[in-house]
Amino acid sequence: PYDERLQALAKAGFKLAAGVPFDVSRSQSFLPNVARDESKMQIAIDCSSFLARSTAIADFNVEYGLVIYFGNPHAQPDRLCNPANAQFMKNAAQLIGAAAAVQGPTREVKRFREEVSYQNWHRMKIKLLTIVRFGGSLRRKAREEEDDGGPGGSRRKMYRTKSSLKVFLENAGSYRQSAREAAIEAKDNAKSKISRWGKKVQGGSAGIPPAFGVTQSLWTFVGVMTTHTILSRINLLVKTESDGDLSLILAPLGALTTLQYNLTAAPASQPRNAIFAQIFAITTAILLSYIPGVEPWFRSALAPAIVIPGMARLGIIHPPAGAAAIVFSTGNFRWEHFGIFLAGVAISIVTAVGINNLSDRRQYPTSWYLANKAKIKLSKD
User: Fold this and answer.
1) 271-275: long-range contacts (C-beta < 8 A, 24 or more apart)?
2) Nearest to 69 by CA among 48, 49, 85, 55
3) SS3 57
4) Mind listing the pLDDT tens digit for each residue in 258-295?
5) Looking at the DSSP assignment, which residues form a beta bridge with residue 289?
6) How many Cα atoms occupy the beta-carbon half-sphere of 118 within 13 Å?
7) Do 228 and 347 contact (CB within 8 A), yes or no?
8) Chain centroid, CA 164 distance in Å
9) In this predicted structure, what is the pLDDT of residue 333?
10) Taking a C-beta distance cutoff of 8 angstroms, is the pair 269, 369 a contact?
11) SS3 of 82, please?
12) pLDDT (tens digit, 9 = 90+) per residue, 228-241?
């Protein structure tokens, strides 16, 4: 069946696949038999006897299944077929399978605890209601006896007054104790928070990303130079034809080409994010300029404050759109500038598609989102 995620991985260049079975319910391990095909540079896993009882792990409530590894077709076959690599894949599959298998029991434990908490609260509520109703009946009976002047009415009144004072003093003591405990807990939480913050500030142990080689750096140079030559020429043409009234804003497009030629597979670099995020950001920024009484310096802070979390909420994160929101929030640009800028974004996407795909180690975009959605819908119909 058609799977959009697998298709995206294949388009990104991961065209080799190996399926490694796992079974966390059995003690023996499964070591896949890795076979080499020198002509096609593919990896095959002999697990036909296990596939008969393998199952999907969509609900993470299984004990056996398959872990699929994807590989780059340009990788060295000797490394892919190395026994150490096969052993690593087997052990990693068991570890991934164990993590998947524990999800089901974890959810069951969570549901059990919620049920126990609900039952405890239900029993407590019944007891409280019983005490309140029973106490109300006793108070009404005592009040009726006092109103009737019955025997012991004055003694009951005096006793009730003393009991109320005693209860008030006891409650005051418990309130003070609760306040002290709450203050101590708040102090401990603050210390713990500060300690965690200090450790995070010190940084983690992650290494720096690898540097580009000379060839890939040259591809980036060619792509960026070509794109910005075209954009700069268009900007000059627009200024000339409009007598300087209109222009193509180039600063956010520099951030866009940085993503397109250095992080070609990143979600933030894809055409969907670039187009929709820019439309959302610039529309918001221009609309803010119509609000009377808002100073430009405050709009420059308000626009990115709205746009950046908005992009995260909509799933269209695109850093150049944050820069565009600041530029357009100054109030110096109109809707005409918006249209010219979107044309520049479209030109950047076209040139990035043409140049990146000339390299054997690049692919841009990783997915045409709207086109793929349309294909899926048409295939279903």
Assistant:
1) 271/349, 271/365, 271/368, 271/369, 272/316, 272/369, 272/370, 273/316, 273/317, 273/318, 274/318, 274/320, 274/321, 274/345, 274/348, 274/349, 275/342, 275/345, 275/346, 275/349
2) 85
3) coil
4) 999 999 989 999 999 999 999 999 999 999 988 888 88
5) none
6) 6
7) no
8) 56
9) 86
10) no
11) coil
12) 999 999 999 999 99
Let me know: does 342 contact 251? Beta carbons within 8 Å: no
Look up residue 377 and give its amino acid: K
- The angle subtended at Cα 299 by Cα 293 and Cα 302, nearest 5°, is 120
The residue assigned the tokens 């004055």 is 154
Mean residue pLDDT across the chain: 79
Which pLDDT score is estimated for 64? 78
Q: How confident is the model at residue 44 (pLDDT cuts 50, 70, 90)?
A: very low
| Global pTM value | 0.55
Digit-coded pLDDT (tens) for 139-197: 666 666 665 555 555 555 555 555 555 666 666 666 677 778 888 888 888 888 998 88
Can you give the pLDDT at residue 204?
Answer: 76
Joined together, the tokens standing for residue 214 give: 């000379």
Contacts of 92 (CB under 8 A, 6+ apart): 20, 67
In 3D, which of 281, 374, 361, 373 has the Cα closest to residue 73? 361
pLDDT on residue 355: 94
Six-digit token string for 361: 């180690």
| Cis upstream peptide for 271 (omega within 30°) | no
The three-class DSSP label of residue 315 is coil
Work out the angle at residue 125's Cα, subtended by the Cα atoms of residues 122 and 127, and round it to the nearest 5 degrees: 115
CB 232 within 8 A of CB 257: no
The three-state secondary structure class of 155 is helix
Query: Which residues on neighbouring strands pair with residue 21, listed in sequence order?
Result: 66
pLDDT of residue 154: 53
Contacts of 329 by beta carbon, 8 Å cutoff, 6+ apart: 285, 288, 289, 296, 299, 300, 302, 303, 304
